[in-house]
Amino acid sequence: MEKPHKGRKDNQKIKELIELNDELENYFRNTIIPQLFVDANLILRKFTPPAMKQFSLTETHIGRPMEEMADNIRYSTIVENIQEVIRTEEVFEKEIQTTDLRWFQMNIIPYLLKKENRTNGVIITFVDITDRIKVLKELERLNAAHETFIYSVSHDLKGPLANIEGLVQHLVKSSGELAEKMGEDSKEQKFIAELLDRSVKSMRDILNELSEIVKIEKNFKEHVETVYFENILHEVEMMVKSKIIESQATIRYDIQVREIKFSRKNLRSILYNLISNGIKYQKPGQAPEITIKTGIKDDMLHISVSDNGLGIANDQQDLIFTPFTRLEKSIEGTGIGLYLVKKIVENEGGQIIISSNPGEGSQFNIYLKPKD
Questions:
Q1: Structure pTM?
Q2: Among 12, 58, 164, 309, which is most buried by a count of CB atoms within 10 Å?
Q3: CA–CA separation, 350 vs 162, rounded Å?
Q4: Structural domain boundaries in the chain
Q5: E strands along 40-117, which residues?
Q6: What percent of the chain shows pLDDT beyond 90?
Q7: Superfamily for domain range 33-128
Q8: The two domains 33-128 and 224-368 share their CATH topology (first three levels equal)
Q9: CB–CB of 107/125 below 8 Å?
């Protein structure tokens, strides 16, 4: 009595397998993605119709070694890649180019037999990325042209600017001597000469920062060393000493992490820009108060620079990191400093976040991954 019952179960299983096979065949016929199924002996067992078009495969290739298919890929290492996946049981990804000069993202995925705990082959998927590669190459070309232009402009203008600087400094000196001899009549000339001198210095700052932009955008790596925050902060204070005295600014430290492996020049640039901005954007009639803190937060090095200045509206906070953007036109500046800070931080895999409200000051929070 049990044999017919067992027979019905076997028939049911066969029916389910046939239905599953039909579903798989339907998938193979209709997918638009080239896929290959290769066994552990590197024999091609199955492929989807798009693979026939992209790799000139026919039914006669089934059951044949993968070495024969490798001829359709330029500088192919597909056989070695399959062997590595079978050995390591880890997914492998690579960009490849076919002999008709199309680009594909190749993913090789191990096919695991769970019951036997072994890899019985691989599934290879090819995603056409030709258009994306073309766009990337065009962007690279435009970036290279952009970098060359900035470098040429900043380099070529430095010579004429040096001549102008010499002439302006001579004019400032002459105007000062003339003002002493002639009194009030020459004070205006001295004032104009000093304005010219400041403008020339501002132009030199812009050219120097343009050169920095080229370095930062090319991910130029400065020398990394162990630097001490307090030493760098003292250096920055000396650089902005005149501004501190003029504005009667107060600078406080709360240094929990005292050293970092970083570029000395880049860390100085970060702190200089944030501290000088805290002084520059002070509220009228109120002396700037700036606090610099370092510590560890969520396993990241946390550097914060906060001030009691003008603050920034929420809808303008992203703009301040855009090059040549100046929200306060009446305050002197190039609009490059915060852009450079952001690029330096991001090039090191970090993040900078601003917290600010108009009239309540600003806090810049920098998060960096500690380096061994």
A1: 0.48
A2: 309
A3: 37
A4: 33-128, 134-217, 224-368
A5: 44-47, 92-97, 103-113
A6: 16
A7: PAS domain (3.30.450.20)
A8: no
A9: yes
Structure tokens at 352: 């900078």
Residue type for position 324: F
Q: Are strands 44-47 and 103-113 parallel, antiparallel or unpaired?
A: unpaired
What single-letter amino acid sits at 30? N
The answer to whether 55 and 69 are in contact (CB under 8 A) is yes
DSSP-derived secondary structure letter, 98:
B
191 contacts 131 by C-beta, under 8 angstroms: no
Report in angstroms the alpha-carbon separations of 78 from 18, 44, 84, 85, 86: 33, 13, 10, 11, 12
Q: Which of 332, 344, 345, 338 shows the shortest CA–CA distance to 320?
A: 338
Residue-wise pLDDT for 108-161, tens only, equals: 998 877 666 777 889 888 888 888 888 777 766 666 555 555 555 555 566 566
Residues constituting the chain: 372
Which residues, at least 6 apart from 102, have a Cβ–Cβ distance to it below 8 Å?
A: 54, 128, 130
Residue labelled with tokens 């501290």: 275
3-state DSSP call for residue 79? helix
